[in-house]
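Same chain as my last thread, 266 residues:
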Amino acid sequence: MMYQPFTLTGMIGSWKPDDRLTISAGIHDGWNNFSDPMPLQGPWNIVNRSYPGAATTAGFVGGVTLKSDDGKQSLAMVTITGNELSPLGRVPTDGSLVGNRTLVSTVYINQLTPQLTWVSQGDTAWQFNSALPAGNLGQQAGLAQWYSLVQWVFWKFDDRWTGGARLEYFRDNNGYLVYLPYRNLAQAGNPGFWSGGFAGNFWDLSFGLNYRPNRNWTFRPEVRYDWFTPNSGANKPFGRGLGQGVGTAGDRLDQFYGGCDVVYQF
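reply #2:
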């Protein structure tokens, strides 16, 4: 799902005091950002320029990994933090607020047998100055929160074939991260081109295969079922294919589909 940055551009270094412990730290240029600076003027300009560090996109990324003596278990914790933008409206002239965004991710891996591996991952994140109302009783106004828990099991059939299953839970507490279906971004009859945020609980159950014919190529087919339990009044995120119907939200709370991707490693 979409609760982590898809890309981070920057530098990171690591130190191994022994065979079990690895410590890493580095800097990044913002979530899914290659070189764009903070917009101090022009489109999406920052309106709260007095916020600490408002003029910089630089942030910190670092973590710790601990492995068992036999190498079959590992526990890793990673933190990504820095200032990010929150648009105040739907057009660039509305401007943006800047605030700290922090994500903490914890991953546990256990090779139970030579064939069976279990992976568990939990993430939690928050964004200050999100320009959104509180998502639950007692939550600070303007603070957006999201968190997730994912479970994988993998079965290695041989050196080329591995099967896997995944159960994933993700909560967008304020509808901050999931806010529009891109398929309807610029369709005729869609004023505004997006809907309000999809505040609620997202689930998915997936089954797939990894096929590695050699060291470079990996083929990954899968089937997947998604479903969504919304907060009161939230939109429906699924359904309505490209250009079907007027409006930006979907018309379903679940979907089933299959897919395949191909990875080439140099």
